[in-house]
Recover the amino acids of this structure.
């Protein structure tokens, strides 16, 4: 009975919606993008648009590269040379099972989602502290742990935002390992005669018979990005979902999806360009930018521990209106802190 009860339990999902304006001093749009580090997919939808502008297309094509390194020893990421070459600030965060954690001999903390029986631990290593204090006890113990006591190896996805002209440094730095350079996958499509919700920038909760709510829009965007048929025809046995009301049919809408390991800096540039989409008059009343994180990343935003076993979702969505107002929707699943 206990097993059946657990199977019937629906994992908690949390959606936080807020509205602001890009011109407000306290607008947190930039901070939210910059501190969501592990981005797997970004999609933007532009109603009443059939072709991308030259500026947007250039940004989309420039979202890569990223790298896959096979069987990389963990001690490589705490070496003085690696930190000085690639790291300006940051931490190495490990999410380990109980046995592996104890074998490292390092100090960490129990996962906040462990439950009564602690089976998972988090180790956080300040890379700047290791770099500035290479002779400290902490640095020597960490190096000894990863090189001798518990020499861990993993397959890594790596991405780097160079501040100079050293574009190829990562390939050459890890040339003694199996490293591959990848470019994100880009999918471009024009959606014809698309039913779109009617929105009012000041009305997050919607207006009866006049505008849809932010929750209705969130569900609708998920359907569009998943290429769900929105007609709700009687012979459609896959989906009965249809566009929320009130709605309007746009003759065409441009959908772009980029999938890979995407840096916050690249997403910030996309958001900035979409902000300026309305610098010239457009038929579209709004555009949207949606970003999904890796389900198995160790953190969601900042250093917030991210749970994986019950879904792993952590994502955000901007709805950008033609008056520079925006809606911000942030969502996480079970085993995650509120993303505020």
């Amino acid at each position: 009975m206990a097993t059946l009860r657990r199977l019937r339990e629906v994992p908690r999902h949390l959606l936080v919606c807020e509205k602001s304006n890009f011109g407000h001093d306290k607008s947190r749009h930039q901070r939210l993008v910059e501190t969501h580090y592990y981005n797997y997919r970004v999609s933007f939808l532009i109603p009443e648009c059939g072709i991308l502008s030259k500026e947007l297309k250039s940004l989309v094509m420039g979202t890569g590269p990223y790298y896959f390194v096979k069987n990389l020893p963990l001690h490589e990421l705490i070496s003085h040379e690696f930190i000085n070459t690639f790291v300006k600030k940051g931490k190495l965060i490990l999410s380990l099972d109980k046995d592996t954690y104890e074998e490292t001999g390092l100090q960490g903390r129990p996962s906040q989602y462990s439950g009564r029986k602690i089976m998972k631990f988090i180790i956080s290593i300040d890379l700047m502290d290791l770099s500035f204090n290479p002779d400290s006890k902490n640095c020597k113990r960490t190096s000894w742990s990863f090189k001798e006591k518990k020499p861990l190896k993993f397959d890594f996805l790596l991405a780097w935002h160079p501040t100079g002209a050293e574009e190829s440094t990562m390939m050459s730095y890890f040339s003694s390992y199996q490293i591959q350079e990848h470019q994100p996958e880009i999918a471009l499509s024009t959606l014809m005669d698309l039913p779109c919700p009617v929105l009012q920038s000041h009305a997050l909760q919607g207006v009866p018979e006049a505008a849809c709510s932010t929750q209705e829009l969130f569900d609708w965007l998920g359907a569009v990005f998943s290429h769900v048929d929105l007609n709700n025809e009687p012979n459609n046995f896959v989906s009965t979902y249809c566009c929320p009301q009130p709605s309007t049919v746009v003759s065409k809408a441009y959908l772009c999806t980029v999938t890979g390991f995407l840096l916050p800096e690249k997403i910030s540039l996309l958001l900035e360009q979409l902000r300026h989409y309305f610098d010239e008059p457009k038929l579209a009343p709004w555009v949207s930018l949606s970003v999904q994180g890796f389900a198995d990343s160790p953190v969601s935003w900042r250093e917030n521990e991210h749970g994986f076993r019950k879904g792993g979702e952590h994502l955000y969505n901007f709805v950008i209106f033609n008056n520079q107002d925006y809606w911000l929707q942030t969502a996480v699943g079970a085993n995650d802190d509120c993303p505020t």
Observations:
- The longest strand covers residues 247-262.
- The mean pLDDT is 89.
- Residues 65 and 183 are 5 Å apart (CA to CA).
- The radius of gyration is 23 Å.
